[in-house]
Structure formats: C-alpha cells, structure tokens
Amino acid sequence: MSLPTTLFAGILPRNSVRRFISTHSRPTLPSIEYPLSHPIYTIWAANTSLGKTLVSAGLSTSFLSSPHRKFLYLKPVQTGFPEDSDSRFVYNKYSEFFSQNRPEFSVFASNHVLKASVSASEAVSVGGFEIERDKDMSCGNGVVNLGLYEESKLQGSEMKGFSKLVCKTMYGWKEALSPHLVAERENARVEDAELLGMLKGCLGSESESEKGEILCVIETAGGVASPGPSGSLQCDLYRPFRFPAILVGDGRLGGISGTISAYESLTLRGYDVVAVIFEDHGLVNEGPLSSYLRRRVPVLVLPPIPKEMSNNLMEWFQEALSTFHSLEEIMQSNFLERTSRLRNMPRKAHDIFWWPFTQHKLVPEENVTVIDSRCGENFAVHKVNNNVDLITQQFDACASWWTQGPDATLQIELARDMGYATARYGHVMFPENVYEPALECAELLLEGVGKGWASRVYFSDNGSTAIEIALKMALRKFLFDHKIVSDDLVAKNAESRVDLKVLALRGSYHGDTLGAMEAQAPSPYTGFYQQPWYKGRGHFLDPPTVAMRDGVWKLSLPQEIETLKPSLEDLTFSLRENIFKESRDTSNLADIYHSYIWKTLQLIIDSSGSTRTGALIIEPGKTLTYAQVSFWSFLPLHLFLLAHDSCFT
User: How crowded is residue 185: how many other Cβ atoms within 10 Å of its Cβ?
Assistant: First the structure.
C-alpha cells in the first residue's frame, strides 16, 4: 500500500506568491521610543479639507485655558507651503483667541518650520519672511534646513504663571499636491526612516525638563490612506508609533461611508481610535456612526463653520469651545486609563496567568514584559524608568517562539487577508470540505516547497499538533513499508509485536503535547512534575553546534565524534559564510559524521529486539544549526520517514 507524502502547512495569504515576490521591506527604521508622561495623539481625517487643523487649533484653545501647561502641535508633512501653513494657522488662531479672551496668565507662543524643499524655501525668501539660515542649508535629497521661526509673548498676569504653545512644521513643499507627488516633482523625497527619526526627536526635545501638563497632537496630511512623501500610506508610515487616534469625520452627504472606511483602515492596522469628531452639516450623521461604533467610541459634532469668515472664526471657536473641552476630557481620560492599565498589567498577569515553561515564583513582577503592540520584528513595550512611563522598542529575538516572520509591510497584508477570510468564511469545519483559500494555499505549497516530493497538504494550527500528526503518519507509513502490519491485521496485534521509537537530537523541543514530549530526550521539562507519563520513546544523538568565540566561528562536537579526531581546520571558520559552503559535504569531517551515524544506527539495530526506529525528527525551526543539517545529511534517510518540526506553523 502506498501512502502519500504529506506537507504540513498553516494558512498563507491570498495571492501569497505574488506578494512574496512584489513586497519589499522598508529601510531600517529608527528605534521607536516616546514618553508616556503626557498624552500624545495623532489627528487623522476621513479625507482632505475636513477640518483637522481646526480641531488642532480648537484643542489648543481648550487645553491652554489654564496656566502651567504646554500644547505641542506637530505637522510632519505640509504641502502648499508657505502659502498654506497649518502650524502657522494654529499659532495665529490661538493668539487671536487669547487676545479676545484675555486669560489671567501669559502664554509664550512659537512657530517653527524646520525643513523644506528648495522650491518652498525660495518661495519663503520671495515672500519676505525672515529666515535663520544655517551656513550650509542643504541636507540632501533636495531638502534644506529652513529655520523659519517666529515667536510672541501673549501678555497676561505674571502672577498667575504662564503656559506655552509650540507649533512645528517638520517638512514643507511648495505645491499643494499629494506629498508623494510633490516630493517627486520638487526632487525632495523624504524617506520614512528620516521622517520618523525627526518626529521622535521633536517629541523627545519638547518633553525633556518640562514641568506642568503637556498635550501633544500630531496632525497628518490629507486622509487616512493618503501617501506620505516616500509613497507609503500615512496609516502605515506612522504605524511604528501607534499613537492613539482622533478621527475627523465627514458630516456631509456620503460622509458616513467615508468616515467608517477611514475608521476601519485605522483599526485594521492596530490603531486605537479614541473619538470621532466632525462638522455639523445638518444631516445627523452622528446617529448612524454612533450605532455602527456601538457607542464604544464617542462621536462629537462641531457647529457649522460659517461661510462668511467673520471675525477670523473667533465666534466659531467660542461657540465650539464646549465641544473641544469635551474632546480634551476624552483624550485625558483615555490617556490616564491607558497608563494605569499598563502599570497594573504585570501584577494582574502575575496573579492570574499560567505561563508555559515558567517557574512562576522565580519571576518577579518587575520582570514581566508588558507588550503594547508589535510592528514587524519589534515589540513596543511599556517600561518605567525613574518613575517615568515610556514606550520603547524591543527586538523579538526569538521570533515569538520561532514562527514569526513578517516585516511591518507584510504584517499589514496578513491583517487584511485574515480580515477578509474571517469576514467571508468565519470558522469552517475542514474534514470533507473545501473552500478557496485552503485549496489555493495547498496548490501553491505543492508547486513550491513541496514540488517533487509532496503529494498532499495537511493543515495544522500549531507546531505541537503538527508534530503529533506527523509522527502518526510517519510511524504508520513505516509499518506498511516494512510489512510489519497490513490491511488484514488489526492495530492491537501490530502494537503487541513492535515498539516504535523516533530518532532525534538531544536537547530538541517539539511542543507541549504528550506525544511531542515523548519524542524528546530527558530534560527538566520532561520530569515527573512536568510530564508524569514521560518515558522517552526515542534514540537521541548529541548534535554538533557552532558559535562565535573570540571573533572566530568554532564548531563544537559531541564527545563521541571528538574521539574520531577531526582536523582543526574543519572546526574553525573565519567567516560565517564558510559554514554554509556545500564543499563541506565532501570534507574529512563529513566522512566522520557518516561513520559516526552509521555506527550509532548499527548499535541501535543490534540492541533493539522488538524495538524499531520508525521516524526521524528534523528540527529546522529552533535549535538546528547548519552543523546539525550537515550532520543529518549523512543519515540513510530511506530507512525513515521524516517528521519535520515547526514546518509552516
């Protein structure tokens, strides 16, 4: 009886072959770190010209209604500059609002434009603005250090203290076009890494040594999915920071659909939308939006903006002030809830979680890692340093237990595809059923990694279950291939005649289910209190390993192989690439591997009696080094069916 050779797989995204070919990783991004000492929010909009800057200016009037406060407004991308300048708009409108309301404290207000394209810089000069020019304005890529700066002191009573308004435009371009297009036209492209690095610097420099309350808003350009200057969608561009979001919706006809689409685009990428706010156009869009959002996200409505811009909108800002106060309260409350939750998570997790592979009494509360989010290969983790909360980046060095591969770009693609599959199918019972994504994935795998050796695909949801199923298949195939059991024999008779074991590496790990643990060598994890049923159904070989010591790659061999006296030149490598050379397959060390494995197998066969070795487990995902691959390559694989560990899980 011929049994099929099976490839184990997990779900791949739709059109996965095309995407793996066409998707390119971003350049290395700066390490993400920002303080949680004060709220930082990103202002998004469902489309352009919906009033993001009005919301930013309104928040400044609300927050700076008291002394000892600092409002930081950041505009990373500004097109149409200098004719259009959102940071200058916020600066001017707050100054006018202050003059009209005369609070009993002073405010130091400033507006700073850091960098601009050459075209925008020349337009500033023509316009008669005074610029603080560096000796060398050029900073590459058609962008110059502009240094446009203005400030004023809004005079009030010094007895009541003072507050600060800091407005900054990070990059400006002359034409009022989409950032990706104007950056290309003005030969002033700014890469994502550069923009995020400057944003990180602005956040850090304005937070240091500040006393009193701070509120920071970062205003995007255009809509949620409008491209940035590099061409990356802004919802992807700012994703490494994942600041909580304020979404400026659309109160016009058709605005319900646009607002929901923008909301979905943000939440699909892992953003927390704290509130939706939009201008009232008399269509009561807040009703359907509140119903769709299930009232989990507050929906605020601003008064209609007058067509006649009388009094420079001061009357409108005064009328809208109560709404902006409500929005500020929502933002402050959400910030306090978030920081409180992050601080309490280690204690609560320590009390109620049962972590795998953990001696809980040996894990102090301060050693619990609080993961706020993930972007590509990095976690964003919560830390408390000197009693100051912050979010900082931490590399996922173990790839979340060896199965995490996507970079930041592919992570978003996977989120979209999983959302699509969930919306289309929900949960589907698999036996005797077929549906399109599973069939397409199986076809792609058989045409790709399984070509020439696999005829079927088995889907498993995790590595431990996959190894259990692989062992069942391998052992059954071994029984039939060696005519130990046939169709006319019942399983219980076969079991009484033969004791099947696996051949595997010592120190290997295949999962926590009972069968998977039986297929590993004795270790602290197989002790009585960990696995009371453990017997160890296998023969386990000590593998070679390779590591760098004193700047040299050195191969360490198990004692049984060292007695065969390999030459020193086979044990050291000046470059890592030398370890992977195919020429090593014909080296003296290869012959030693071959001899050792054959000798070990012969001892196993001679002493086995009714025990047979029915499967070989290769562990490519975790502890397997190239030295081990070379080691296994000399095994007579025709004797066993391979049970691959962690394949495609």
Answer: 14
Tokens of residue 476, six digits: 């059954």
The count of other CB atoms within 10 Å of the CB of residue 508 is: 22
Residue 409 within any structural domain of the chain: no
- State the distance between the two ends of the chain, measured CA to CA, in whole angstroms: 29
What is the CB neighbour count within 10 angstroms for residue 170? 23
Condensed to tens digits (0 to 9), the pLDDT of residues 135-165 reads 455 556 789 999 999 999 999 876 778 999 9
List the one residue out of 403, 431, 406 whose CA is nearest residue 416: 406
Choosing from 277, 306, 341, the residue where a domain stops is 341
User: Are 313 and 89 within 8 A, CB to CB?
Assistant: no
Tens-digit pLDDT profile for residues 76-135: 999 999 999 999 999 999 999 999 998 889 999 999 999 999 999 999 865 445 544 444
Q: Are strands 370-375 and 378-385 parallel, antiparallel or unpaired?
A: antiparallel
Supply φ then ψ for residue 148, to 5 degrees: -75, 125
Contact of 510 with 520, CB cutoff 8 Å: yes
Q: Where does the pLDDT of residue 493 fall: very low under 50, low under 70, confident under 90, or very high at 90 and above?
A: low
- Of 470, 468, 436, the C-alpha closest to 6 is 470
Split into its structural domains, the chain has a count of: 2
**In this structure, is residue 24 part of a structural domain?**
no
Structure-token pair, residue 647: 């394949």
The enclosing domain of 141 has a CATH number of 3.40.50.300
Q: How far apart are CA 645 and CA 8, in angstroms?
A: 9
DSSP code per residue over 361-423? GG--GGG--EEEEEETTEEEEEEEETTEEEEEEEE-TTHHHHT----HHHHHHHHHHHHHHHH
DSSP 227: B
Distance between CA atoms of residues 253 and 257, nearest Å: 9
pLDDT band with cut points at 50, 70 and 90 for residue 530: confident
Indicate which CATH number applies to the domain containing 580: 3.40.640
* Residue 620 pLDDT: 53
Amino acid at 526: T
**Domain termination site, one of 278, 312, 341:** 341
Contact 175, 188 (CB under 8 A): no
- Distance between CA atoms of 119 and 136, rounded to whole angstroms? 16
Query: For residue 549, how many C-alpha atoms fall within 13 Å in the half-sphere facing its CB?
Result: 8
Whether omega for the bond prior to residue 240 falls within 30 degrees of 0, making it cis, is no
Could you tell me which of 197, 219, 261, 283 has the C-alpha nearest to residue 71?
219
Domain residue limits at 533: 6-13+433-647
